[in-house]
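Anyone up for a design puzzle?
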């Protein structure tokens, strides 16, 4: 469904009468302009709407009028989610037309590529390099099998846009104890491109997340912002250089697979059980997912990617490829 949200505030004051705090001198951020169009995309469960809420509230705090439009619904089952946020002295439409987004924030790699045509030529592209491959892209789940999915690497995309950042935000967030804070890492990256007070960002974020997760989100924001400022100073850091190809190497052997389920996070929704193509998962007496047939698991990651609560994690280790 589409749900436009309108908020009207006072027009921002001029520089001479500004009542907003200035950023510390020397930080390589772009000057704030009179409004902006921010497009946030991803899949269900990643926190797309949380980013949109923070950006909208931050713009309100600067005195702008804000309109927001979003599409969600069944997206929580792994489908597409996107949100448009437009703000300025006066805003009439809640949607961003192609080629008019000042910033594109992608929580999933292929979704970022899908929406690239909405970004302005001089716009900012910010993406998590995490790929959530849908089940229909996995025609074969054997090691080394081809996947019908986006194969462009971070280096490829960053070289095509005027101002691009591609980082492994999910892994950064995991380092603070919760991969779900990857969206806040990306907010930190965005903050380095918008000259609004860091204190305002933190205030809005803390008001938008549960109290028990405020420390994690504060740390995630700081990590994303620090990474972005370093990347602005050193362009070689703008993309995850560890990803050189998404093609499976030839002769790849079946990997060793470790599947872990966080029982405290599992709510027994049964999605992983029903969608596992190998039927190797089940719900136990406590309605918690368990791996009933370890030998049948191919490590396809479908259960991990579709779990709405991030309760499943899969780790794989690959033997050396067979060479002639």
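Challenge accepted. My sequence:
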């Amino acid at each position: 469904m589409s749900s436009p949200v309108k908020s009207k505030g006072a027009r921002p004051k001029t520089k001479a009468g500004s009542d907003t705090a200035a950023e510390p001198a020397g930080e390589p951020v772009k000057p704030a302009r009179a409004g902006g169009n921010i497009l946030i995309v991803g899949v269900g469960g990643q926190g797309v709407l949380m980013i949109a809420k923070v950006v909208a509230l931050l713009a309100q705090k600067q005195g702008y009028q804000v309109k927001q439009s979003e599409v969600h619904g069944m997206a929580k089952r792994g489908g597409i989610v996107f949100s448009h946020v437009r703000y300025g002295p006066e805003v009439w439409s809640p949607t961003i037309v192609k080629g008019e987004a000042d910033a594109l924030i992608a929580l999933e790699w292929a979704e970022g590529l899908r929406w690239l045509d909405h970004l302005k030529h001089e716009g900012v592209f910010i993406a998590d390099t995490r790929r959530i491959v849908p089940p229909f892209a996995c025609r074969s789940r054997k090691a080394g099998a081809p996947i019908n999915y986006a194969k462009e690497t971070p280096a490829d995309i960053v070289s095509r846009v005027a101002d691009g950042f591609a980082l492994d935000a999910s892994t950064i967030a995991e380092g603070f104890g919760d991969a779900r804070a990857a969206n806040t890492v990306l907010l930190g990256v965005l903050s380095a491109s918008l000259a609004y007070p860091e204190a305002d960002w933190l205030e809005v974020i803390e008001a938008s997340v549960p109290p028990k997760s405020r420390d994690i989100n504060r740390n995630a924001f700081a990590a994303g912002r620090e990474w972005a400022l370093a990347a602005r100073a050193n362009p070689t850091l703008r993309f995850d250089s560890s990803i050189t190809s998404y093609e499976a190497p030839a002769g790849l052997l079946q990997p060793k697979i470790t599947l872990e389920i966080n029982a405290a996070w599992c709510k027994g929704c049964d999605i992983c059980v029903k969608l596992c193509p190998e039927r190797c998962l089940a719900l136990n007496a406590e309605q918690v997912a368990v791996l009933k047939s370890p030998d049948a698991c191919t490590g396809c990651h479908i259960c991990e990617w579709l779990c709405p609560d991030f309760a499943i994690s899969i780790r794989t280790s690959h033997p050396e490829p067979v060479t002639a």
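A detail worth pointing out: DSSP finds nine helices and eleven strands in the chain.
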